[in-house]
Design brief:
2 domains; 22% strand; 265 residues; four-stranded antiparallel β-sheet; six-stranded mixed β-sheet; alpha/beta; single chain; Rossmann fold; globular
């Protein structure tokens, strides 16, 4: 587990004439071993923040650190799960999961198989190890994607709307699956979503961002008991937290479209 920090970060896209300031004065701390969800209106810079932690991009100013070390590039200490899965269609399920492990020395080949088998069992896909991604349901493919990232046991797990393309029932099942997996082996996690129920159900901390340029507007402590099951979504405290998050996101969504309110159709 590792602590992640973004301090006074500024991120700009484009050149001087058409520059878009995605983040400005952005501060975010992910305490070691906590699960943080990130909410905010579209275009507020959620993915930009995740990409900075992953090392896919660099800030114009400010610092991004993992356990006090500056993030310069992607690394095995930060696993990323995308919405589009990014599975290799020509590889079987077990081969997709073991892909990153193949970088281990040849003498450790037995560890590759043992770790792959462990993850196949953890995600409930032992019987599907020889199948190809096209032969799986959407939820099963998403489990493969998560298992592949977990194969290298990264202390930081970054997820950018990984369940966004799933149907409602499969999405709930995947939320329960992820919570169960994380509770068995906690690690520092950041999860981006637009789904209020999902944000509250998964998190220890829920951070709501402002409209662009993005900053943290408010952080809610999700003091719901663990282990967590879907039934907790009917509790009064769950509804209280979700309603507070809804108010905060709505305020910023309205602010993001305010410049358009005076324009003519």
């Amino acid at each position: 587990m590792a602590e992640v920090r973004l301090d006074r970060v500024r991120k700009v896209f484009g050149s001087e004439g058409d520059a878009v300031v995605a983040l400005d004065g952005f501060d975010l701390a992910l305490p070691a071993g906590t699960f943080t969800t990130l909410l905010g209106p579209s275009g507020c810079g959620k993915t930009s923040a995740l990409d900075l932690i992953a090392g896919f991009t660099k800030p114009e100013s400010g610092t991004v650190t993992v356990d006090g070390r500056a993030v310069e590039r992607p690394g095995p200490d930060r696993g990323v799960v995308f919405q589009d899965l990014a599975l290799f269609p020509w590889l079987r399920v077990d081969e997709n999961i073991a892909f990153g492990l193949r970088a281990l020395p040849a003498k450790e080949a037995d560890k590759v198989k043992a770790r792959t088998d462990e993850l196949l069992e953890a995600v409930g896909l032992l019987l599907f190890r020889r199948r190809y991604p096209a032969e799986l349901s959407g939820g099963m493919r998403q489990r493969v994607a998560i298992a592949r990232v977990l194969a290298l046991d990264p202390p930081v797990l970054l997820m950018d709307e990984p369940f966004g393309a799933l149907d409602a029932q499969t999405r709930v099942l995947m939320q329960e699956f992820l919570v169960s997996l994380w509770e068995r082996r906690p690690r520092t996690a950041l999860f981006i979503t637009h789904d209020l129920d999902e944000a509250v159900f998964l998190a220890d901390r829920l951070c709501v961002m402002t409209a662009r340029p993005g900053r943290i507007k408010e952080t809610l402590t999700v003091d719901l008991p663990r282990p967590r099951e879907a039934s907790i979504m009917s509790s009064a405290r769950f509804h209280e937290l979700r309603d507070r998050a809804r108010v905060l996101v709505r305020e910023e969504a309205l602010r993001s479209i305010q410049p358009l309110s005076g324009t003519k159709a």
